[in-house]
Amino acid sequence: MGGLFPSLRGYRRQWLGRDALAGATGWAVLVPEALAYATIAGVSPVVGLYAAPAALILYAAFGSSRHLIVGPMAATAALSAAIVGEAAGGSSASFSALTAALALTVGVAALLAGLLRLGFLAGFISEPVLKGFIVGLALTIIAGQLPKLFGVEGDSGNFFERLWGLIADLGGTSVSTFLVGALSLLLILVLKRLAPAVPGSLIAVVLGVAAATAFDLEDHRVDVVGGIEAGLPSYGFPDVSLDDLGALAAGTVGVLLVAFAEGLGAAKTYSARDHYQIDADRELIGLGAAGLGAGLSSGMVVNGSLSKTAVNWSAGARTQLSGIVVAALTLITLLFLTGLFEQLPEAVLAAVVIAAVVELVDIPSLVALHHVFTRRLGQAYGVAARPDFLAAVAAMLGVMAFDTLPGLFIGIGASLLLLLYRSSRPVVSELGQLPGDGHFAALDRHAESRRVPGVIVLRVESGIYFANAERIESRVRAAAAHEEVTAVVIDAETVPFVDVSAVRMLDDLAEELEARGTRLLLARDVGQVRDVLRTAAARAELMRVYPTVRAAVEAAVADRP
Predict the structure, then answer these.
(1) Which run of H or E residues covers position 488?
(2) C-alpha separations of 415 from 106, 121, 129, 403 in Å
(3) Alpha helices in 116-241 (DSSP H)
(4) Which member of 17, 209, 464, 556 has the greatest number of CB atoms within 10 A?
């Protein structure tokens, strides 16, 4: 696999200062976000810090990205809370132990997938589905954090239940809690907008702790984090049974898909900017090693972070030494600074979470997906002419209504169903001859093109197989129904494949048309199509494929009685 710590090979001394600065900057972002994301996962805030050091070091040892920073993230934290919450119902193990066990199962699954070279699996979550999933997840997370911002009890459940619970409890809002949370949120968002290089979340956390200590905010109905155990975490396998691991198995796949897709996207974004390659299989192994490290450190699920990687790259990181610096500073934080976070107001943590995930509510991207539409697609597919938009909305609403993991699989399922629907209804365009050069182009796109008398030219813009063969047959039969038509030419340049069902359909159709005095000719097929036609014993007329549409049309005209 290329050895350990690949990004450190050929290290230059002049990079040390930049990597150290980037590491310190990354630490300033990771600490408050790790504390906040742990609360999303339903565990003590310090668990987020437990997960980071081993994960960062092990990813640096096995991953292929020079810039990716791994750690707790909102999407996988929310998935963890849902999966562990369900498994905890029938288990005697603690919620924290099950959370660490889930990190282990995801790590083992990622490691096995990488060794089996299954990096291509990331493609099963399309970008629109992942976008819709993350938007729905972000909205659900925000709805769950708003009660802490207002100092009310709130409600559990899906997005709509949480939102209704908040509205119902607004009468009991704690003014002091709301002021602390709202001011923290405003501070973070303003700094992010006006001074993006300044770690606004860390400043809000420090000011929140200082205010809680100076003004005894707990006495004014402002809830604080409370006791946090100082020191390093307990290392070793979490105290769970085999039955517990089995209960986590199904959810592991969903977490792995989301974690890998998010991390791989972040890694590729910044490898492109620095002109180096990312190995998807090695990324799986890096993610697996990081997960094992987090799970054996009493931590939680981790994955690559786009926001922290962006900070790392912007600060000038050259190698994964910056991630190792983040790990070292996080260990120092655990040893000497955890006591400071005991006075951290819950409303400030909620503000950190909301500020981190509000950017994920990318409505403009959904609107852009809706605009991906053409009249021809509308005619061919009707409501399914915007498949990416529909899949994204299905994932978003699935998360908001049915929880995180069901929402993810609803989005994937909708994407696959729309793909099957569209492939079963291929666009079949009629072509006409352009004046002058004699080339053929779609009649509905080129008004100057003209039909050749007695010859219909059709272009099938899809593979031809069992699911769409009957529809294509109907289209060809309808085109040949006119008495003056003596030949139908199929331009097969845009047909990447055919199956045996398609060959049988073309054979039967050619025989039927021939009985009516109409020929069926093929032009410009690709190699795979020609191979299947030959091995499936297609009739001789179909085996004679013309090199150009023009040649097929000229042959059809020349053979007229």
Answers:
(1) strand 487-491
(2) 24, 15, 7, 18
(3) 127-150, 159-169, 175-194, 200-215
(4) 464
